[in-house]
Specification:
Length: 144
């Protein structure tokens, strides 16, 4: 089930662009280990907030929420009007990923295109990771 959560490096980059959604797990920033949220920390504990620990640079335990990939894709769609998708490619054991613009921010994808896509020879999980990295890159450029 660990593969359903984005890796630490992505969770950290998501935090940098404003991702602050509740998560079912978190990373300890000191060792990058993934931990699930346990019941004592899910009911309004003052250290961890109302549901999940969020990265709090002032606290002794440096935590970063570990969102699910689906949660990240939903967030990009809702907050930035960007849709990321991964599909089977034309070649054996290949995948494509595409990032769609909703039409309102077309300029960020370059050349007036409403989507950008890439063929990727590798696993589905790696294509998913590349797609999320592409979404982060677009939002990061737009925020400059």
């Amino acid at each position: 089930m660990k593969d359903l959560f984005v890796p630490y490096e992505i969770a950290s980059r998501l935090e940098d662009i404003g991702f602050e959604e509740p998560s079912l797990a978190y990373y300890d920033s000191s060792n990058h280990k993934l931990y699930q949220v346990s019941p004592p920390f899910t009911t309004g504990d003052p250290i961890f907030g109302s549901f999940v620990p969020k990265h709090n640079k002032k606290h002794l335990i440096p935590l970063i929420g570990a969102p699910l990939y689906q949660q990240v894709f939903d967030w990009f769609r809702k907050e930035h009007n960007l849709l990321g998708e991964v599909n089977i490619g034309d070649k054996e054991e290949s995948y494509t990923y595409r990032i769609w613009d909703d039409g309102k921010t077309r300029k960020i994808l370059g050349d007036g295109k409403s989507s950008i896509g890439f063929d990727f020879n590798g696993s589905f999980d790696k294509a998913k990771l590349k797609c999320v990295m592409g979404l982060i890159s677009i939002v990061h450029k737009r925020n400059k």
